[in-house]
Every structure is written in structure tokens, then in C-alpha cells.
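hey so i finally got around to running the thing on that chain from the lab meeting. sorry it took forever, my laptop kept dying and i had to restart like 3 times. anyway pasting the input first so we r on the same page abt which one it is
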Amino acid sequence: MLNRRTLLAAALLPLPALAQPGARAIRAIVPFPPGGGVDAFARIFVPAFSAAIGQPVVIENIGGASSRLGTAAVVRAAPDGQTLLVTNDTLAAIEALPVAGSGPFIPGLAPVLLGASAPQALVTHPRSGIADAGAYAARLRAGRPTHVGVPGLGSSQHFASELLAQALGGRPEHVSYRGGGPLLIDLLAGTIDGGVVTLGAAIDQVRDGRLVALGVSGPSRGPALPQVPTFAEAVAPGFEAETWMGVLAPRATPAPVIAALHAASLAALRDPGVAQRLAGRGFDTPGHGPDRFGAVLHDTAARFAAVAGAVGLRAGEA
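ok and heres what got predicted. didnt touch it at all, straight out
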């Protein structure tokens, strides 16, 4: 069995440009502002990836338009392994809700690694008056005005919230933010009723009591916050809507470069310190390669397109 050093050496042999001394830094573009779930994943993953690839890697947050701005920057970049996209299933969501003059994006990207999966969480302020998932469901069913923030209309969190609303038989009014970080600021201030974010984005605030997690969207309770019930057990039997996070490159990136990037990415993900920190924030780390990641990406886009049709979401709303 190949060890990590042997694997990386084999992958990097045809690619001296990726690890030459003095090579320019790789750009790891996160298409969201700092403070959200993807940013939390990237801040843990990227330093280990930099060490594995033997080259500086700089995180660049390019938020806006439900991740479209940062994603477009990667699609337009040279396919030389020097620009990567670190994103979540919002990539599939914006593909399901195209807007004029933007995208499609998936055909312009090459999957490298599906690095993490995590539940979405519905969180609220302790003084919101919404004590638990049952109270939230009752509020929606009664038609009471309920403002729920999402990191962009048309984001994966928006789709998860729409799916939950379908299951509960009521619908909140969604408030769009440029990312999970700005959304959490308003949640902490108590200016909106609730918000849907990746669990890892809000886990510290939930642990210290500044926010309350009403439920998580995974199939089971997570070990990082075992006291928080799933929506399936609390109010919506069978409900599940996990998010994933991954690394992609421009589409025309040569196959040997993709192989080297995948080897370094997987080595970083399997680093014990990285795995421990990600688990502590509620992330699982499947580590799927380009082929399986590509299949997941296309399946997710198809599922989100079906949701958009079912609830009547239009491109202009994203």
C-alpha cells in the first residue's frame, strides 16, 4: 500500500511546475464572504493542502450573487492548476436557477475532491420566541410572518429551507445575505427570526449559547452537537438535506494536473489534525475523487432543479 509520501511523489513527477521553488501562490477562491461554512472548511483544509502540494496557497474570498462572482473567476482562469474553487452545493443550486448573462458554470469546471459533507442547521436567537423545531413548524403552519435568513437566494441553504417548508406545510419569508458570515451577524443581533446555515458556520455560537439550533438536516444527530435533534425526528419524518463542500479547477486543466491536485487534496483531508478539527465543527470527510464528485455534482443540480420547479422559484429570485 502506498504511503502518503509515495503517493504524492508519484502524482507530482510529471508536474514540476506545481511545486518548483519560487512558484507563484495557488489561488483558492471561496465564492462567499468570510465567516460562513465554506470559509470555515477552507481555513482548516487549505494550510494542509499547501503543505502537501509544496506550494503557497492563498485563500481569496470573492462573495456575491449567490457565489456566482467567485465561481465565474475560476471558470475564466487559466487551466494550469494555479486557481482552484472551494465551494459547496450552492454550485449546483445556481446551475438549477440560471440568471441571464451568468453561467452555466458546471461545464466550465473540473471536479478535484469532494472533501466534506455536513448538515444544514436552522438557528435562531435565544430571545426569538421560537423555542424548538416544533414551535417553528407551528408558526409556519399558522401563517405567522417569519423571516429566515439564507446566504443568498438560490443558495443550497435556501433550497434546504424550501424543502423543509414543504415538509412542514408553511413557508417563511426568506431574507438574502451575501454569505453565512453577514447572516450570522444579524442573527446574533436578533434582527431576524432565524437563519439556515451550514452547521460548522454557527457551531461556536450555539455551543456558547449565543444562538439556538432548532434542528439539523442530516439523517442523524451529529457528534459535534448531539443535543440538537434532526428535523426528521422532531417535525418532518424522512427529511434530509445535507450540504457538501469540494475543490474544483477550470475545465481544461490537464488530467495529470488534476491527479496531482487530487492526491494533495486527499492527503490534506486525511491529515489527523485536519480530520479532527473538521469533525469538531460537524463535518464528515468522504474524500471522493473526481469521477464520483462529478456524479454527485450533476445529481445535486438535478435535484435542486426539481425543487425549484415544485416551489415555483424563478431565476430572477436568485
